[in-house]
């Protein structure tokens, strides 16, 4: 999950369009006939991007899979690479040791891979070695946690932490229907991380649109144990609540345990990230869980696909632009009982 400053709720239209097209698979529709020669020249034949090309060797490094979302990041990347005969994926062991991750990238540089897809444990700490890779002629795709220097990567794939807060807040506003005295609580992740700060800022901004604010707030640590402890403290301090937003579905397992232990059900809860167990609870509609906000665990898979396009000299063929965009920010939709079947196939297991 991102550990860099925020993005606006409504990102530039081009970036959002690019994200949608990327998820669709970076392939185009059949070009339409046109008398405009300039338009014809800009079009790319349908399916060209997925046709086999020269083999691309990609080094991949991410933090340790110590929770469901991060585990899905690596699994999705491997699964995507396996779909292409022209991708040779080299996967480094997941690590939360910055120095070890730097050494992994150094090894990829020495091995002269064609591209590196990197979700850094610490974006600032991995910036220098990423720049070194770029200077060595290796395409670097930065995933989720941004480097300090934009020249450290050819392109960056991001989630939308500020947008998650906006989505959660607006959903809660809609559900509460203008109840002016509603009590809304927030269970955040790690407060020292910019991603948590961005989510909280977006949440506060969205609640402010309907005249509400956060009445009770606690922070956990993205773990089941941390979520349970934080939620227990929250519920003890707040005898009456109308809604809760929990930033992370992995820690939400513990949050739900605390709620059940306290025998509380007077409120509804919105999750964050998009785990399978939360989506199944939303579909069953038999608990306080009524929605979750997606933070895609497919970002590294998108990064693998982009690295292949970049090394093979291709573009995102549904765009007129002849180059892969420099930044792609994915959307943060709200999953409810009404649309959960659409999102279940991409859910991760907590």
From TrEMBL:
<dbReference type="Pfam" id="PF13407">
    <property type="entry name" value="Peripla_BP_4"/>
</dbReference>
<keyword id="KW-0732">Signal</keyword>
<feature type="domain" description="Periplasmic binding protein">
    <location>
        <begin position="58"/>
        <end position="314"/>
    </location>
</feature>
<comment type="similarity">
    <text>Belongs to the bacterial solute-binding protein 2 family.</text>
</comment>
<feature type="signal peptide">
    <location>
        <begin position="1"/>
        <end position="24"/>
    </location>
</feature>
<dbReference type="InterPro" id="IPR028082">
    <property type="entry name" value="Peripla_BP_I"/>
</dbReference>
<dbReference type="GO" id="GO:0030313">
    <property type="term" value="C:cell envelope"/>
</dbReference>
<feature type="region of interest" description="Disordered">
    <location>
        <begin position="27"/>
        <end position="55"/>
    </location>
</feature>
<protein>
    <submittedName>
        <fullName>Sugar ABC transporter substrate-binding protein</fullName>
    </submittedName>
</protein>
<dbReference type="GO" id="GO:0030246">
    <property type="term" value="F:carbohydrate binding"/>
</dbReference>
<dbReference type="InterPro" id="IPR025997">
    <property type="entry name" value="SBP_2_dom"/>
</dbReference>
């Amino acid at each position: 999950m991102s550990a860099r400053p925020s993005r606006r709720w409504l990102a530039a239209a081009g970036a959002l369009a690019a994200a949608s097209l990327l998820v669709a698979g970076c392939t185009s529709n059949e070009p339409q006939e046109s008398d405009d020669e300039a338009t014809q020249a800009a079009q790319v034949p349908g399916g060209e991007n997925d046709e086999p090309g020269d083999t691309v060797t990609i080094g991949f490094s991410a933090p340790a899979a110590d929770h469901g979302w991060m585990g899905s990041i690596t699994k999705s990347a491997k699964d995507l690479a396996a779909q292409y005969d022209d991708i040779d994926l080299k996967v480094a062991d997941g690590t939360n040791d910055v120095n070890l991750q730097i050494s992994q990238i150094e090894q990829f540089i020495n091995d002269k891979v064609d591209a590196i897809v990197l979700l850094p444990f610490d974006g600032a700490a991995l910036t220098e070695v990423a720049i070194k890779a770029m200077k060595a002629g290796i395409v670097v795709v930065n995933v989720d946690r941004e480097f300090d220097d934009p020249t450290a990567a050819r392109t960056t794939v991001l989630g939308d932490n500020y947008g998650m807060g906006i989505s959660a807040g607006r959903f809660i506003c809609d559900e509460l229907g203008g109840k002016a005295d509603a009590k809304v609580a927030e269970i955040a992740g790690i407060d020292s991380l910019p991603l948590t700060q961005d989510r909280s800022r977006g949440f506060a901004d969205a609640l402010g649109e309907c005249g509400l604010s956060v009445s009770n707030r606690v922070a956990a640590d993205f773990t089941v144990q941390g979520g349970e402890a934080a939620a227990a403290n929250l519920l003890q301090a707040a005898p009456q609540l109308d809604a809760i937003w929990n930033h992370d579905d992995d820690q939400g397992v513990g949050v739900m345990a605390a709620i059940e232990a306290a025998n509380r059900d007077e409120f509804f809860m919105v999750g964050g990230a998009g785990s399978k167990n939360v989506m199944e609870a939303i579909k069953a509609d038999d608990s306080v869980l009524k929605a979750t906000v997606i933070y895609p665990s497919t970002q590294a898979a998108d990064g693998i696909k982009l690295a292949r396009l970049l090394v093979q000299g291709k573009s995102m063929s549904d765009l007129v632009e002849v180059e892969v965009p420099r930044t792609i920010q994915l959307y943060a939709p709200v999953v409810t009982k009404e649309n959960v079947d659409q999102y279940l196939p991409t859910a991760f297991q907590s």
